[in-house]
Amino acid sequence: MAWKDKFKQFGIPGFILFVIISLFSLYLITNDSELLRDLHVKMSKFVTSGFFQYQEQKSPILQALQFILLILIYGLFLLGLVNAALMIKKVILKPTPSVSPHNDFESYLELEDKLGDVLTAFEQQSSVRVIDEKMTIFMLRNHEEIKKIFGLPERLIEFVWYFQGKNNDVELVYLKTPLDIEGAAKLINSALDMPYVRVQEPSVNSRMELRESPIKQFISVRNYGTLKLGLAVFILKENIFTKEKLKDFIYCTSKIILLGTNNRFLRHFKRKKNNGI
Amino acid sequence: MARTVKANTIGSSTIKRNGAVVKGTKGNRIANLSNLKENVRLSRKQNA
Fold first, then answer.
1. Nearest to A102 by CA among A38, A40, A160, A146
2. Is residue A97 part of a domain?
3. Is A35 contained in some domain?
4. Membrane-crossing residues (chain A) (predicted)?
5. Contact list, A273 vs chain B (CB under 8 Å)
6. What is the mean pLDDT of residues A10-34?
7. Is A172 close to B15, i.e. CB distance below 8 A?
8. What is the per-residue pLDDT for A205?
9. Is A258 in the B-facing interface, judged by CB distances under 8 Å?
């Protein structure tokens, strides 16, 4: 609303000025000196100083000065009250400090740096062995980042990278074989029937076919358009997903969405898979 | 049966799909998985 924005812009001092101007406007329009006098008398009642007491015999200029000062005193009092209330509100509703790695800028830059190492290795036409090594480091750095987001140790989280194979096949690659690779494949396969870049299943065991699976939660991210590269994350503990963590996951994986579109990266990724290194 | 491979090696499997992968066109939210495919044909290859 416009008036709310205006109020926020000018604040309490603006409001006091507005009241003064309004009262004088009212006085000028109605020419009712009684109105201001009554107000002056009532306001001066609560002020002990003799200077502010209303006296008929004082000059109109002095009376006006007293009145303006009274309004300012009341305004300051009101300002103090509002600020005190705001401070109490701030203390009571103090947000819990975020421990999310979303704010961990250094960590995010490190991930970017590892991707930079891979891309630089391409540019410098480094040996295949060097590129492979840098790609593995980048993959592991991604794993680390996601582990941090969900606050999980190595044993409670698994990662599977996937890309489009021949015909309609989907190739899965992993640095550590998931405990339930069949279940993991079912989840990835089903997510690929949906047009969404990010898909989650927060309650894997609620699915009849996976009720015995050690996988409790699943989330996957892949590129836009035809499948090029994706990453599936399998959580082996219940109730890990929160709104905040998922938001961080989106932030952290935004590069993966674009990664598959880099042909050199994808080609080496496929080669890495075929050679198993 | 779970098997752990060395950190610098890659294990792999292939999902044999009947239909094409649906193109990713929506990304403004994390979608909940709708239907779970009951059967999946998976061929596994392990590099150690």
1. A146
2. no
3. yes
4. 12-30, 64-86
5. 10, 12
6. 73
7. yes
8. 95
9. no
CB contact under 8 A, A187 and B33: yes
Which residues on chain A are in Cβ contact (under 8 Å) with B27? 196-198, 224, 257
Complex ipTM > 0.85:
no
Could you tell me if A67 and A163 lie in one domain?
no
User: With an 8 Å Cβ cutoff, are A196 and B31 in contact?
Assistant: yes
How many residue pairs bridge chain A and chain B with CB atoms within 8 Å of each other? 156
Q: Give the angle subtended at the CA of A69 by the CAs of A63 and A74, to the nearest 5°.
A: 125
CA distance B34 to chain A (A): 8
Question: In terms of Cα–Cα distance, which of A149, A178, A108, A161 is closest to A241?
Answer: A149
Residues of chain B neighbouring A169 (CB-CB closer than 8 A)? 14-17
Q: Is residue A101 part of a domain?
A: no
Q: A2-30 and A60-92 helices cross at what angle (nearest 10)?
A: 160
Least confidently predicted of A51-55, A165-169, A210-214, A255-259 = A51-55
Q: Could you tell me if A22 and A149 lie in one domain?
A: no
In this structure, what are the phi and psi dihedrals at residue B41, rounded to the nearest 5 degrees?
-90, 120
Please report, for the domain that includes residue A255, its CATH number. 3.30.450.40
Q: What are phi and psi of A273, to 5 degrees?
A: -65, -45
In this structure, is residue A21 part of a structural domain?
yes
CB A231 within 8 A of CB A141: no
- Domain holding A49, by residue range, is 2-92
Q: Residue A231 — φ and ψ, nearest 5°?
A: -135, 125
Other CB atoms within a 10 A radius of the CB of residue A220 amount to 27
Compute the distance between CA of residue A250 and CA of residue A200 in angstroms, rounded to an integer. 12
Q: What pLDDT sits at residue B5?
A: 36
**pLDDT-based confidence at residue A198 (cuts at 50, 70, 90):** very high
